[in-house]
Amino acid sequence: MLKLLLALLFLFTTPGCALMQEKAEPGTLPPPARINLVWQHADKPEVDMSRLDQVTGINVVSPCWYAIDRADGHINDKSVPGYVERAHAKKYRVWPLITNSFDENLTRTLLQDPAAQDEVIRQLLEQSAKHGFDGINLDFESIYEEDRDALTRFTQKITQALKQQNLTVSMDVTVPSSSGLWSRCFDRRALGAVVDYLMIMGYDQYVPSGHQAGPTAAYDWLEPKMQEIMTEVPANKLVLGLPLYMRLWSTDADGYTKGRTLSMPEAEQLITQKGVLESYHWEWQADKKLFFYTYQEDGLQYCFWQENAETLRYKADLASRYDLAGLATWRKGFETQDVWPVLAKKLRRDRE
Questions:
Q1: Which of 204, 134, 140, 202 is nearest to 169 (CA)?
Q2: Are strands 93-94 and 60-68 parallel, antiparallel or unpaired?
Q3: Are 222 and 317 a contacting pair, CB within 8 Å?
Q4: Residue 6: pLDDT above 90?
Q5: What is 251-277 written as a DSSP string?
Q6: How large is the angle between the packed helices 104-111 and 148-162, nearest 10 degrees?
Q7: Residue 271: beta bridge partners?
Q8: Contact call for residues 68 and 106 (beta carbons, < 8 A)
């Protein structure tokens, strides 16, 4: 009987015992030396990073769980119980993403209401304590240019609060452009001084709403954009976001162009299927460092600039060359598996 009591006492007092393990405290895992993050857009088995086999090189996962959906600061919560514990077991840090619902009017009202901002922060702290996050990824887009300074102040307010739980704070920003809602709304220099990392969305060079065919992220477009950003923000605070997708463009006889998102496996399938057409043509565009494909079918002219492991290798090289903080990819489920070893190699400190 004495041996049994001693055994039970040991079981319930030994650190790390399965019966005594608790959820990780917020901010348990600091950011890695080189960040290799992937965004998980949905709670689906085929993209659940907490349950899938460990992905080569990935050390941060960002599930898209939260959205500010009311001007009073209410957050729509899609968090998944147990996710963080499973992800930690695979050595992933977890930095859930929160958006402003990409609503410029909601955002303007929020940025003018300190109580609503406090409500956002309260919920983030509550969620972090509940799940044991390591960081938070802010994805605030579609914002009036006039609200630029208010956005910076709100970001500073969020960051100061999250640091109470030792959370890493990252923020997604677009590359510089003339667009107010899309780009000029970000004071990158000021934001870079506030958050731990700026995640540069190095994609969407051409988008369907523009009705003009073009690549998602040409190398000769991306490198100058990153060079411009580095005049405002130190390289060691920049994470380069790369696309795991492209767009298939179709143009009709009247010259009207539409685009739809194309994953890497879908692109490979198209290349196989359409390669038999007489109109099929492809070429390597050295300035863009992209493969270009075109063909005609059913009265429409189709084209796409392919992203694959080879094209991403060139863009990922920017992170090595400029000694950036790391890479991020949008999004899990769009890729072919050969991209992960390529990106991991580019982020090694002992890179060739």
A1: 134
A2: parallel
A3: no
A4: no
A5: E-TT--EEEEEEEHHHHHHHHHHHTTS
A6: 70
A7: none
A8: yes
Q: What is the dihedral of CA 324, 326, 329, 335, to 10 degrees?
A: 110
SS3 content of the chain, % helix, strand, coil (to 5): 35, 25, 40
Radius of gyration of the chain (CA): 22
Taking alpha carbons only, the member of 318, 188, 304, 338 closest to residue 328 is: 318
Tell me how far apart the alpha carbons of residues 216 and 83 are, in angstroms, rounded to a whole number.
Answer: 31
For residue 301, the one-letter residue type is Q
Q: Which residue shows structure tokens 């003339």?
A: 178
Q: What is the pLDDT of residues 96-123, one digit of tens each?
A: 999 999 999 999 999 999 999 999 999 9
Q: Which residue has the tokens 């510089």?
A: 176
Could you report the per-residue pLDDT of 261-319, keeping only the tens digit for each? Answer: 999 999 999 999 999 999 999 999 999 999 999 999 999 999 999 999 999 999 999 99
Displacement of CA 186 from its chain's centroid (Å):
17
Phi, psi angle pair for 338, to nearest 5°: -75, -10
CA–CA dist 349, 323 (Å, integer)? 9
